Amino acid sequence: MSGGTHMLEFALRNGFLSCVVLLAVIQFLIVLWVKTRLDYSVKYEYEKILTQLKYEDSIRHKASMIAEFLSKWQNSTPDNRSDLNRYSMELSLVLPAEIYKELKKCLNYSSPDHTSKDVLISIRKYMLGKNAGDLAAGDIFLF
């Protein structure tokens, strides 16, 4: 009987040790899985924020280019025609066709309905979308 008892104790200890090892492995895998998920989640959030910042920087750059173009156009001289042409070409590459054509009508004085302020509002709505607010052409002041 003593041999059978020893075998039973050995089997119980062995089973207990196997359970402990198995639980340790499972715990390690769960911790690894949670860490991996957390890393990917943080990476995704940072990439989303970086994409938004790049988009906002692009909008600021375009807005600056448009404002400088309109400012130079309003104060144009024969000396700055090449600058105006360069801006015009750049804007034709970044603005939607409809807004660029509206800008052209304003600059050619071909339509009294299209002032530089109206064009600015159209560009503002295009670039900012739903965040454009309710700014109207009459709200823009120029010197």
Provide a concise account of the structure shown.
This protein is mostly helical and 143 residues long. The protein has four helices and no strands.
Strand content: under 5%
Structural class: mainly alpha
The residue ranges in which pLDDT falls below 50 over 5 or more consecutive positions are none
Oligomer: single chain
Distance N to C terminus: 108 Å
> What helical percentage do the residues reach?
over 70%
SSE series: HHHH
Estimate the global geometry from the Cα principal axes.
Answer: rod-shaped
Number of strands: 0
Largest sheet: none
Query: So how many helices?
Result: 4
- On the 0 to 100 scale, the average pLDDT is 84
What Rg, in angstroms, do the CA atoms define? 34 Å
